[in-house]
Amino acid sequence: MDAFDAYPQDPERAFDRLTPAGKEHAFYTLVFEDNWPRQGDYDMNDLVVQFRQKEVLNAQGQVKELYIEGQIVARGAELHNAFAMEFTGVKAEALGDAAIALQGQSATLSAEKNQQYLVLNLLPDASKMAPGTPDCRFFNTQSHCPIQKAADFQFKLAFKNPQLPENMRLNPFIYRKDQRGHEVHLPNYPPTSLADVSLFGQGDDGSNPAQGRYCVTKNNLPWGLYIPDSWDHPEEGKQI
To answer: Which H or E run contains 126?
Structure first.
């Protein structure tokens, strides 16, 4: 028995790793602009999601389970967008169990079909989870509207076989609910197998797959950002 083992009675689990590192109650932020391949109003508030995650590792440092606690902080999109996660490097067959609770309503998750790597659709429609009101069509992006409570969700995943962290890159993205191939990723994160690659190079997009360049404008501006902390997102129509 290891005195520093977080699970001294469990031979398959040894310790936890938190992100943000060492901050149990802190969040990081993901933001997306959904007008890709056009720059649009560039207020970076079409979807604002805060996360914190816990990986459960075995004694060899392999990931056994993943827990994510998150919330939709803001939605400034007219479009109906879904939020998904690719586990780049992990095959769908590695998935054991996965489930998500959306504001207290639980659902089982399964791997998206016809993908090279494991993809899970976490939030099927951000507009339904973070709705507007008769007077305010968006969610926490308009200065004249009251602030609404963030829409919470919890996600958990267990692998059939533990995964090496270096072979499991989290690749979060949004896509249009009525147009699955229209994916928006963080800068230079690759698309999934279901992305419509004919959109590359259209409008303001400067993607070049041969150079590993994705979802950035010709002037290197992104359509998505990872911010390693909480973030005060811009109001509607105000460019960052």
So the answer is: helix 126-129
Length of the chain: 240
Tokens 């976490």, residue? Answer: 122
pLDDT tens, residue by residue, 78-136? 999 999 999 999 999 999 999 999 988 999 999 999 999 999 999 999 999 999 999 99
**How far apart, in whole angstroms, are the C-alpha atoms of residue 214 and residue 224?**
11
Largest CA distance in the chain: 60
Q: For the whole model, what pTM was predicted? A: 0.94
Contact 16, 57 (CB under 8 A): yes
Judge contact between 126 and 79, C-beta under 8 A: no
Place of tokens 């933001």: 31
Rg (CA), the chain: 18
